[in-house]
Amino acid sequence: MQFDILTIFPGLFPSFLKESILKKAQEKKLIKINLHDFRLFAAGKHKTVDDKPYGGGPGMILKVEPLYQCLASIKRKKKTKVILLSAKGKRYNQKIAQDLSREKQLILICGRYEGIDERINKYVDLELSLGPYVTMGGEVGAMVLIESISRLIPGVLGQHLSLQEESFSKNIKYLEYPQYTRPPVFRGLKVPSVLLSGDHKKIKIWREKSAIIKK
Ligand SMILES: C[S@@+](CC[C@H](N)C(=O)[O-])C[C@H]1O[C@@H](n2cnc3c(N)ncnc32)[C@H](O)[C@@H]1O
């Protein structure tokens, strides 16, 4: 899977990409992540990427031309989706993550300021929202997509089995059973005895009962 991130703040990403599982996944060449600073595609000495909104109103709007030029410069694979991070988009969830994990390339556009000139939507396949709130930019959204999609790619997680029972794996309403590790008693709080019993049949039943199916 290749992720191409379009942002005017590429400096937000390096430490995020160089730690833990994402770092290993890149080393194993299971994922590739390219950062594109679309400011470099802006015209003029000052490389201005934003301008005042037509019709008036507060804040600044990201111009369409630098983003378009940046998008056009990216080499496309056969299975590619262009995704715009936007509060107005479709609510992101695990099912969408699963579907997107089967693509070959995801191009993620991160907005800033008051958003992006609407005409960018002509070049976008999917507008996705993290939830019903507004963040300062699309970069955290891009990070959420990268983490949630990468871990579904075979080989990225050490134990692919862990994906089978985790929250949302069976359906969007399924929440994983409670998990514990050592010590068996912490400040008087005990681990359920069945989990210490070694009886795998009983443990399985307990876990099935303890998983939550949201209404
Ligand atoms: C301050 S927001 C712009 C909000 C916009 N004026 C509105 O009312 O919908 C700047 C950028 O952050 C990103 N963003 C904000 N909230 C988001 C959310 N809930 N999900 C995904 N991206 C979001 C988008 O890329 C957006 O262009």
Plain-language structure description:
α4 (94-100) links the parallel β5 (80-91) and β6 (105-109). Helices cover 24% and strands 21% of the residues. By secondary structure, the chain is of the alpha/beta class. The strands form 4 sheets. It has a 5-stranded parallel sheet with strand order 2-1-6-5-7, with helices on both faces. A two-stranded antiparallel sheet has the order 3-4. The chain has a two-stranded antiparallel sheet with strand order 8-11. It is elongated, with a radius of gyration of 21 Å. The model has no long low-confidence stretch (mean pLDDT 95). The protein has helices at 14-17, 20-27, 64-73, 94-100, 139-150, 200-210; strands spanning 2-7, 32-37, 50-51, 61-62, 80-91, 105-109, 126-129, 174-175, 185-186, 189-190, 212-213. It has 6 helices and 11 strands. The structure holds S-adenosylmethionine (SAM). Residues 85-88, 110-112, 114-116, 129-131, 133-138, 141 line the site of S-adenosylmethionine.
Topology:
Blueprint: E1 2-7, H1 14-17, H2 20-27, E2 32-37, E3 50-51, E4 61-62, H3 64-73, E5 80-91, H4 94-100, E6 105-109, E7 126-129, H5 139-150, E8 174-175, E9 185-186, E10 189-190, H6 200-210, E11 212-213
Parallel strand pairs: 1-2, 1-6, 5-6, 5-7
Antiparallel strand pairs: 3-4, 8-11, 9-10
S-adenosylmethionine is lined by residues 85-88, 110-112, 114-116, 129-131, 133-138, 141.
